[in-house]
Amino acid sequence: MPFEYLRELAQAELPLAVDNEASIDKLRVLRAADLVSVNLPSPVTDPQVARVEAITPKGWAVLSLNAEHLP
User: Fold this and answer.
1) Quick check: 35 and 59 in contact, CB under 8 A?
2) Closest CA to 34 of 61, 68, 4
3) Which of 1, 37, 38, 40 could be 54's S-S partner, Cβ–Cβ 3.0 to 4.6 Å?
4) Helices (DSSP H) in 1-71: which residue ranges?
5) Model pTM greater than 0.85?
6) Cis peptide before 47 (omega within 30 of 0)
């Protein structure tokens, strides 16, 4: 789930290189929602590596709101 991946990214040291295809797909969803700033690879680039630059202010707000609802 992309939201859980956003939580993982919040704990990581950014910028971060990501070469796992499933994680890159999650990054595409998170970027489309404007939750992360990321440089995504071109579909024809090999190897496929994304670079997560930052969690956006909107991303931090989503994380904060969801943290309030955790038991």
Assistant:
1) yes
2) 61
3) 37
4) 2-11, 21-32, 57-68
5) yes
6) yes
Using CA atoms, how far apart are residues 28 and 64, in angstroms rounded to an integer? 21
68 pLDDT band, cuts 50/70/90, is low
Starting at the edge strand that comes first in sequence, how are the strands of the sheet with 36-39 ordered? 16-18, 50-55, 36-39
How many beta carbons lie within 10 A of that of residue 49, not counting itself?
14
pLDDT over threshold 70, residue 71: no
Q: Are 49 and 22 in contact (CB under 8 A)?
A: no
Mean pLDDT confidence for 23-34: 96
**DSSP letter, residue 31:** H
Six token digits for residue 19: 């070469």
Decide: helix, strand or coil at residue 61: helix
Dig out the tokens for 63 from the structure: 């994380």
